[in-house]
Design a protein that fits this description.
single chain, about 300 residues, mainly alpha, Serine Threonine Protein Phosphatase 5, Tetratricopeptide repeat, disordered N terminus
Length: about 300
């Protein structure tokens, strides 16, 4: 049987190449897990840019490969948050409005691309997203009907993360904000399926959503943040970072100072989260600057 399949494959151009590429993609996804252990920010940035170009090429050769789609979703979303938004924030702090706007457009483009590939990935489970997106109720029902495995949390999380991050980036766009429920519903489903995925990221994302304004579900947000700190043994500093951003929103200076200080004083608390922790330290250092504390309303 294998010989017959191979014989048929040889008749089609690119078939062998696709088979080899599928194997390479699977190996690359597994190997990519070591990327989070990098502590060199500049090296990680250059590697991410090169990796995205590689994944785009792999996807072109094997467009249905789910590993390639996943790496593109995760890669573009992570690149936008970890590197492009970082450059945008630096430009904002130095008062360079033109550069800040340029990086904002780059971040949006990266999130757009992550969402494009993410919806393609989810369509491999069911193609009904466009119809389900009609409203919150229909989307929630679609998600529960078609994504019921703990393994589904991984794909849902990254698509939801890109969606919610894009809305956060474009808060001045009413149409974008009106569709926030799409990302929230996906994130809620990821949270239901596996709240501890990737350093309790679905839990942290839902905590941030509940604490998005001082008038939102503040009590629920605090409870989720505290649980995420326990889950990660305080070793995933992005939990403290997001919690500090919540403290800014609710004008809790004591909590804000404690969390920012904890991030800056931490010494490699989790080698498997080293890159995210490096990024968290960069952001936390800026959160001590007068402009940042003034934005929180702190003296």
């Amino acid at each position: 049987m294998r010989a017959a399949i191979l014989g048929l494959c040889l008749l089609g151009t690119g078939c062998i190449e696709t088979i080899l590429t599928n194997g390479e993609i699977a190996s690359t996804r597994e190997a990519a897990k070591s990327f989070d252990t990098l502590g060199d920010y500049e090296l990680a940035k250059a590697s991410t840019q090169a990796g995205l170009a590689q994944f785009e090429g792999m996807h072109r050769i094997a467009p249905s490969n789910e590993d390639a789609l996943f790496m593109l979703v995760q890669g573009w979303a992570g690149y936008a948050w970890g590197f492009v938004e970082d450059e945008m924030e630096e430009a904002e702090l130095r008062g360079d409005d033109a550069a800040a706007e340029y990086h904002k457009k780059r971040a949006k483009s990266a999130y757009d691309r992550a969402i494009f590939y993410g919806l393609e990935l989810l369509s491999h489970e069911d193609k009904g997203f466009d119809a389900a997106k009609k409203n919150d109720a229909t989307l929630g029902a679609w998600l529960k009907a078609n994504f019921d495995s703990k393994d589904d949390a991984e794909n849902l999380f990254w698509v939801a993360y890109a969606w919610m991050s894009r809305v956060s980036l474009l808060q001045d766009d009413p149409a974008m904000v009106a569709d926030l429920y799409v990302g929230v519903d996906m994130m809620q489903r990821a949270f239901e399926l596996d709240p501890t995925y990737y350093g309790s990221s679905p839990m942290v994302a839902m905590a941030a959503y509940h604490g998005r304004t001082a008038d939102a579900e503040v009590k629920e947000a605090r409870a989720l943040f505290e649980q995420a700190l326990k889950n990660t043994k305080r070793g995933a500093l992005t939990v403290q970072l997001t919690y500090a951003q919540f403290a800014c929103t609710v004008a809790d200076k004591k909590l804000y100072d404690a969390l920012v200080g904890e991030i800056l004083s931490a010494d490699d608390p989790d080698p498997n989260q080293r890159l995210n922790n490096t990024i968290a330290k960069r952001r936390a250092a800026r959160m001590k600057l007068p402009k940042k504390t003034a934005d929180c309303g702190f003296p």
